[in-house]
Amino acid sequence: MKELKTATRRKISFIATLKAICWSFFGVRKKSGYEQDAANLNPIYVIVAGILVAILFVTILLLIVKCVVAN
Known about the structure:
Helix content: over 70%
Number of strands: 0
Number of helices: 4
Strand content: under 5%
Structural class: mainly alpha
Shape: elongated
Order of helices and strands: HHHH
Distance between the termini: 54 Å
């Protein structure tokens, strides 16, 4: 429990977390970048950003499919 409290106090911005999540969705990341993210990212931000990016990704895919099917 103490480790979770310590992890949530990490001071990295939500924008930096979004950037790391987008890189993970793309699937290209250096090992050093991954290790730095794992050490510095706030787990709460990671969960929230992951859900938001996943919703955005699915929405974009649905819009593309609707456009293709409509034509």
